[in-house]
# Entry
Amino acid sequence: MLTVPNLSVEKKYNSIAVLTSGGDAPGMNAALRAVVRYGIAQGCEVYGVLKGYSGLLEGQIHPMNASSVANIIQRGGTILKTDRCLPFYKKAVRQEAANLLVRKGIEALIVIGGDGSFTGAHLMEKETGFPTIGVPGTIDNDIFGTDDTIGFDTAVNTAIDAIDRIRDTASSHDRIFLVEVMGRSSGFIAINTGIGGGAETVIVPEQMETIASICKTIERGIRRGKSSSIIVVAEGPKPGLAQRVADGLAKKNYNPKVCILGHTQRGGQPTASDRLLASVLGASAVATILSGTSNCMVGVQKNKVTLVPFKEIIGTKKHLSKESMELARVLAT
Ligand code: F6P
# Structure
C-alpha cells in the first residue's frame, strides 16, 4: 500500500496555480482536490487554470476555494478541462505564459498530466525560471520514473470489466474476439488487462505478433478444447490495429469479431487506488513546490513517493517488463 509521506512544508511561496493537461484520466479531479485543499491548508492562494496550457495562454485563471473542489473526488474527467496545446512547443509562447502567471501574482505552477505536459513545464521553468512541478496523470502508465500514473488502475479495471462481458458472448457463440485497448506507444494497459482478464493472447507495441503466431495460439487452444478466444490488442501508434489483425485472421479462414474499447477507458469513476494515489501525489506536489523544490515530478516507486527531475523523465522510455509479457503468455496457454 502507498505510504503517506511526511508532508511538512517550509513555505517559500504564497500563491500557486494548477492545471490539467493532455488526455484526461480518472483521478485527475481527486488530484486537483488534494492540491487545492492542501494548498489552502498551508495558507496559500490556489488558482485553477481552465483548459490546460491553452487556457493559461488565454488567461483563464480563477481563484479556487475548498468548496470549488467539493463532491469531485468520485468523478472521472477533469472539472478544469484539458487540452493538447501545440503552440506551447514554442519558446516565445512559454515565455508569454510565465509572464502572465507572474502578472497575476502566481509564484508556482502544478501540472497534472503526462510526458508531453511535463515537457512544456520543464522548458518553461528552464527558460524563464518560473517554478513548475508535475503530477503523473495518464491512463497509459507510460511515464518514466513512476510505477503508477493516476488513471491507469481505473482504465485497466474498465477494460477487464468489458472483457468479462465479452467473454460471455464469445463463449456462447464459440467466437474469437479482438479487444482493442488504449496505449499509443506502450502496452501497459494491454498487458495488465490481458493478465487480469485471462486473455488468450496479448498484442503490445513492445512485442508485435505475426498473424502466423496468433493462428498458432488459437489452434493450440482449439486442440485443448477451447471454443472461444479473447485477444487483447494495444491500439499502438495507429489505432485500428485490432481490425487490421482481424483482416489478417480472416485470410486464414477465421471470423473474429472486433471490439474497440477506445475512450470508454478514459471515463468513469476512479478506483480506490487511483483516488488514493491522486490524493497523496496532489498533496505531495504542493508540499514539495512550496518548500522550493521544482522542475520535477512527484511519482511513486515501491509504494513510496519520490521526486524525479523532469529532465530524467522526458524522452525516456518506460519499459514494459519482460516478466509481465512472459506471465501473460504462460497463463494463456
Ligand atoms: O494518452 C492517453 C490516451 O488515451 C492514449 O491512450 C490514446 O492513444 C490517446 O490518449 C487518445 O488521445 P485523444 O483523446 O486526443 O484522441
The two ends are 31 Å apart (CA to CA). The CA atoms of residues 222 and 228 lie 8 Å apart. The longest strand covers residues 15-20. The chain is about 40% helix and 15% strand.
